[in-house]
Amino acid sequence: MALRIAFVRPRLGVGGAERLVVDAARVLAERGHEVALFAPDRPSVPQFEDAVSPRFSWARDGAWIPESLLGRLRAPMAMIRAAAAGWFARGFSPDVVFADVTSHIVPWLSRVTRAPVVFYCHFPDALLTAEGARARPAYRSYRSRLDRMEARGLEAARVVLVNSAFTARRLAETFPELRVQTTVLAPGVDVSRHAVEPISDDGEIPVVTVSRFDPRKNLTLAVEAFAAARREAPAGPRSRMVLHIAGRHDDRWPECREALAHLKNIAAGLGIADAVRFHLSRGDAEVRALLAGSRVVLYTPRGEHFGYGPLEAMACARPVIAVNEGGPAETVVDGVTGFLRAPEVAAFAGALSLCVADPDLSRRLGLAGRDRAASRFSLEGFGRELEQVCLRVSGRS
Question: Which numeric CATH code is attached to 4-188+379-394?
Answer without folding.
Answer: 3.40.50.2000
